[in-house]
Amino acid sequence: MTMRTFALLSAVGLAATTATAQTEIFFPEYEFNNAVMSAVRPDGTNRRQLFALPAAQWLPIGLTYRPSSGRLIWVDSASGSEVVSATTSGAGLTTLRTFAGFGKGASLDAQGRIFFAADTRIHRVNADGSGLVTLFTSAGQFPVHPPRVDAVNGHLYFGDDGRIVRTDLNGQNLKVITNAVSQARAITLDIARRHIYWADVDTISDHIARSNLDGSDFTIIADNSISVVQSGGINDVLADLASGRLYYADDLSDTIWAMDLDGSNKSLLVTSARSPVGIALSTGEPQQALNDCNNNGIHDDIDIANGAPDCDNNGVPDSCQTNPCPTLDLLIDQGSNAIATDGRALGTESQWQIFQPFDVPAEGWTIGAIGIDGYTVNYHDGSGFIARVYPDNGTFTRPDESQVLATSDPFNLRFNTFRVNWVYSPLRVTLPEGRFWIRLEGVDPQAFFASVNKGFSGLQSFSRGVSGTFTAPTSPIALRLIRGEPICPADFDNDGFVDFFDFDAFAACFEGSACPQGRSADFDGDGFIDFFDFDAFVAAFESGC
Predict the structure, then answer these.
(1) Which of 93, 314, 376, 422 has a 20 to 30 A CA-CA distance from 452?
(2) What's the distance, CA 425 to chain centroid?
(3) Domain with 170 in it: what CATH number?
(4) What is the DSSP string of 155-189?
(5) What is the pTM of this model?
C-alpha cells in the first residue's frame, strides 16, 4: 500500500467517524399549499421540521446545501419556476431567480454557482441568482433531468433522452456515460471508486443502478420496479461518501431510505404524511476524489488532452479500462433493427421463449460469448434471462431439447427502445459442423419481461409460450456469437482449471451420473463409451489439456 493510498484511507476513516456524529439529512416535503423543510439524522433519529414553506411555494423539487453560507438552495415549480434560498431555520427566504419552464433539482460548484434543469435545458446561475446561462439544450423531445456537479473535477452529469452524459461546467466537451437508461431522474457520484449511481424512473422502471464511469459493470442496487403501475417514485439519490451510505427519497411511498453503497443493509429512515422530494447533507455537496484513474497525480482530462488514448471518447483513458473499444471476433452478427417496433417478446405475459437456429461450417466453431440486443420492459426481480445451446433434432426445423450443450450466465437487456445496446454473456462451447439452436428464456419467466430486437440477417426464428405451441417462423433476432479460445478437453467441469475436480467429474460421467454441460463420457468421440475414453481423458489430463 502506498503512502498516498494509506493517507486517503485514513482520511476517509476519520471523516466517517466525524460525519456520523454531525451529519444531518435535509429534505423538503411537498403537499399542496402545505410544504415543509425537514431534517433527520443518518440513523433515522431526531427527525424534525425546520420550517414551513410559503403556501405558494408548495412544490420544491431537489435540494442542496452550502455550509459556508449556511443556506439551503432548491427549485420550486408550483406556479412558475424559481430558485429559492433560505437558512436552515427558514430565515431570509429569498427567490434568487425566476425562469421559464418546469424546473428541477439544484447542485453547486465550488463557487456556489447553482446548476438546475428546466424542460429540455440545463441552466446555471451565480450564487446570488444573477447571470443566467443555458449550458445545454437537448436535441430530444423529453425533459432533461436534474444535474449533479463534481466540483473537484469540473464536471456536470445529467440524464438526457435515454442516456447519461457528462460535460464540463460550461456545458462543453459532452461525453456519453451510457445510452442504456430510461429516465435518469437523479444522479450521485463516487469518483474515488469510479462509480456513478442513478435513479431510473418512469412507467416501467423504479430502481437505483450503478455502473463504472465508463458505463461498464451495470448493477441494480435497489429495485422497486416490480411494483410500478403508472410511474416510479424514486426522485433523488445521494451518496454520503464519508459514511459509505446511500440515501434515496421515494414520493410514491412517501419514504426516505438508507443503505450501504453496494445496496446492502437497507433501512427505512423516514415515513412521511407528505412527499419527500430531495436530499441534501449538512456537510454540503459530496466532495469527490480527483478523477485520476491511473493514480499518476494528473487529472484524466489533462492526460487525454496530452495524448493518452481514449478510443471511445468517454473521458476515461484506455489504460484504465479492462477492454476499451473491443474488437469482437464475430462468428455470427445478425445485426439489430432497433428502430423496428415489433421485436420478439421474451418472458411474460405468455412466458415466451425464443428459438434461433444457426449453422456451423465444416471447420467447426468454438464459441466464447453470446450477444443479444433489445430492451427490457421491466427489470422486476433483476434475475434476467439465459441462453442455452441445443443440437438440431435431425429435421432442421426444431432443436433437440433433451441435450443442453451449453448455458450462458444470466444477463439483462438494458433500457431504451430505438437504441442499440448489445449485452453479452459468457457461453463456452465447441461445436462441429451442423445446425444448432439458441433458446432464450427468463430465469423467472413469470417475472422477466423484455423484447429482443429483430436482426437483418440469419435463419428465421420461432417463439413458444406456455401453451407449448411454436409460432410460425419469422424474422431472425439480433444475435451475435463471439469466437472463444479453444476449450481444454481436460477441463471437464468447465471451471477454467485442470485439476482433480475434472478427474472426479469425468469419472462420475463415465459411471453414468450427470455429465457437465457440453461434455460426454465418449471422450474420444468414436461413438462408444468404453475404457478407451478413460485412457484418452487420462492422457489429456496428464498433458494439462
Answers:
(1) 314
(2) 15
(3) 2.120.10.30
(4) EEEEE-SSSEEEEETTS-S-EEEES--S-EEEEEE
(5) 0.80
